LytR family transcriptional regulator
Amino acid sequence: MSEDELESEPPRHGRMPRRGVVRPIIAIVASSIAVLLVSGAAVAAYLVADLYGDVKEQPPVELESETVLEGIPDIGAMEGGLTFLLVGSDKRPEDGAFGDPEEESAVLNDVNMVLHIAQDHSHVEVVSFPRDMLVRVPECTDPDDPDGDPFSARSSVKINTLLSSGGAACVAKTIEQLTGLTIPLAGVVEFRGVAALAEAVGGVDVCIAEPIEDEYTGTFLDAGTHTLTGLPALQFLRSRHGVGDGSDLGRISNQQTFLASLMRTLQHGGVLNDPVKLYSIAKAVIGNMQLSTYLQNPTTLISIARTLQDVDLSKVAFIQYPTEYTDDFSAVVPSDSAAALNAALLADAPVVLDPTATSNASFGTQAGETPAAPVEPPGETVDGDGVAPPAEGDGVAPPAEAGQALPSDVTGQRADEVRCSTANDG
């Protein structure tokens, strides 16, 4: 059994169906979900039909809040925005490709990410909830026996134990209770899908500030920029012993740098204009996902895609749900700043992160060199003088933005930001 599993609180109920799902890497998909779904809007109808066959291979995730979608012709225009939950677990595929499924798996939802698309489609927030965060859990239906006795409400439970004691629907209900959001859509992703996605996009560039060595995940990277694909990408996203402060909080910051780079690759690397790559990406992710009921309809996927295809990367924020350690450092609990983040999400307001928050955190990443802005075609202008403004350099704060400023201890980054993973000295 891996050290990650030994450190996690054992599940209280072990009756989750044996469905292949993913792990911290699911992070990758939260961002890719946005762009993946964008791809759905560009793929021809007959290809969408083929993808639909992949979707139907997995039984749907049934959410209580999906009833809010009944009678809504375009869910991309839901009042107050649209919220999607992405969950990933430790369970290995049965073929042993990522470790012994019997000895190295615990069905823990070690990655929990919420993707919130604004009602006017002008901004997107992707919030990561630390796996060791203690939460209050409402009464949840047993997914193996929906008509039987439900799992009772509990308190001070690590969020990463909920997949095995109520399924993805219980994770959604718990986050709804925590944040006040309504979550009508969800997906659970497989290990294999993460590696396949990285391959489908042709690799993702990651910036490494100093050499990373993590023998637990087999991640060994020199300082500099690396293009990661397949299994190496998966290992990088799973690493926590080798990055930041060696905790899951450091791993989340590390994942955010990868996700931001992934989105830049998808938007600026010609991927969105390449039907073959788009189809490969959609096939890689959808073929390895278990989706909620409404997402099993291809027209729904396309509807969401249309809400995302024009969002500016500077308006996509990756945010780590603000927490603080318990007295014995065995877990984390939501900090006072969580209320400000919850309020911004409920108000469907864009957020502004403190530009120094992540760099100053013990588990954070550091600023990298932002690439120059794309050259404007002849005859087009960027400002009133017809001259493109200078690109932001390393360490230069972004211009002031309209939005709700979050407290200085709320960490994260924008999708257009380049940040570098820092090594763990321990």
Notes: DSSP finds eleven helices and 19 strands in the chain. The domain at 3-421 is CATH 3.40.630.190 (Aminopeptidase). Residues 226 and 330 are 33 Å apart (CA to CA). The two ends are 22 Å apart (CA to CA).
